[in-house]
């Protein structure tokens, strides 16, 4: 199977020395890419800036901004069987990048931001992707409600929901605990485990479900 995976945060420049970003180490996305490669899949990893070494044996495309990630997904999505969107994409970017460093003049500073491209939300509606589509939902409240809303709104086959208000899971930690949300089944919680172990379990599940969708 050919699998495209997005991972890591994006950076939206404000001036030559500053940017807006999201908390994301990229560990979950990189673990998924490794697990998919180990299972024999052909992997394309589209990664925002992370401090992890690039995994071997796959195509790795490094990007910075949400717009660059959008363009990279657009150009690599054709021919993929499965796409897993684990990146923590910035939702807004400064409308313009200041050419010079912004000086500390006033007591307050107001930034004007504009929405970025919704990459996962474009997979079906803009890019015409018909393969198996997986999104993530990192939430601090009403986890399953928000996850099911994303499942429907973005046309996903699976949303992996992640309660990021709990200590010791998500973000920079080595472990994660997620619930699988599917269109026509009850939410399925998986036990807390290392991101590597969880990635293997998720890739096994996704491999099976994607094959079922094809037949
Ligand atoms: N996503 C994306 N492009 C964006 C925003 C999100 O591809 N511009 C993807 C993420 O990679 C994730 C899923 O959409 O798989 C859900 O991301 P999330 O931030 O939880 O959802 P949003 O639609 O941005 O909604 P909100 O942040 O308001 O909860
Ligand atoms: Ca978001």
Automatic annotation (TrEMBL):
Pfam family, one: DFP
Domain DNA/pantothenate metabolism flavoprotein C-terminal: residue ranges: 2-208
Gene3D superfamilies in the cross-refs: CoaB-like
Lineage top rank: taxon: Bacteria
InterPro entries, sorted: CoaB-like_sf, DNA/pantothenate-metab_flavo_C
Protein name according to UniProt: DNA/pantothenate metabolism flavoprotein C-terminal domain-containing protein
Organism: Prosthecobacter algae
